[in-house]
Specification:
Blueprint (H helix, E strand, L loop, with lengths): L5 H15 L3 H17 L2 H13 L6 H17 L7 H11 L3 H12 L8 H11 L5 H14 L7 H18 L33 H14 L6 H12 L4
Length: about 240
């Protein structure tokens, strides 16, 4: 599967699943069967593989199965042919293979902000878990544009606001410059092409006061949200750096 040899992956996972039938290894192979189908573009087959996993509440892979089904369902609801979900699936695969540059190229049509894409917020969430510092500006620009123009009704809005604040914290802490380079002076791979033609460029935060404002915005919109306590703690740390 790591080498995108889906046929071999299906054979190996199917054989293992038949041998084990029940138990942790059986659940693991069934999930990876579904993931293989997802990467290969066989979304309906992936959903079939996920059915049994989702019914097993105690399964280690139950939450992953629900997440994978949500991605598939959102993509197919927007376009039943699967073309809507294809670049997203490929981007997830590349991230899991450690191919960050290729993953971002696959995600580019989803996150560039030129038009709304049903998997925009999901793509940004995947990026937040995998992005390196070299591509911090790409992520910060993309999540800012999404939250400003498309993300008002997103179920992931609070989470993405938290990720934006967290990334801003890193930008200030590691002194990442406007072109994405860190204070080491080592330039990142070229990233500006992902946003060529954007009418607006998103300025990076330059001080802790701007970072604190982002955490405060979370409290204003979601005072009782999941990340509210974390935001309060971080605000206190920023106000009292000696402690």
């Amino acid at each position: 599967m790591y080498e995108s040899d889906y046929a071999r992956a299906r054979i190996a996972f199917s054989r293992s699943n038949k041998q084990e039938k029940i138990g942790a290894l059986a659940e693991k192979t069934r999930y990876y069967l579904a993931l293989t189908d997802f990467y290969a573009g066989d979304y309906e087959y992936a959903k079939i593989q996920l059915n049994s996993l989702e019914r097993q509440n105690t399964s280690y892979f139950a939450n992953d199965a629900v997440q994978l089904r949500m991605w598939i369902q959102k993509g197919l609801n927007a376009d039943s042919t699967g073309s809507n979900i294809e670049p997203f699936a490929k981007g997830v695969e590349y991230f899991n293979q450690g191919e960050e540059q290729k993953a971002l190229e696959s995600f580019a049509p989803l996150i560039s902000g030129d038009s709304y894409h049903t998997l925009m917020d999901e793509a940004l969430l995947v990026m937040s878990r995998n992005i390196s510092r070299s591509f911090t500006k790409v992520y910060y620009s993309a999540v800012t544009n999404y939250l400003d123009y498309w993300g008002q009704a997103s179920a992931l809005r609070e989470r993405l606001m938290w990720e934006k604040a967290r990334i801003a914290d890193q930008i200030v802490s590691y002194d990442i410059s406007i072109d994405g380079t860190e204070d080491t002076g080592i330039p990142p791979a070229p990233v500006q092409r992902f946003f060529e033609g954007d009418s607006e460029k998103v300025p990076l935060p330059t001080n802790q006061q701007e970072v604190q404002k982002l955490y405060e915005n979370i409290l204003l919109e979601f005072p009782n949200g999941f990340y509210a306590s974390y935001a309060r703690d971080r605000i206190q740390e920023l106000k009292n750096p000696q402690t």
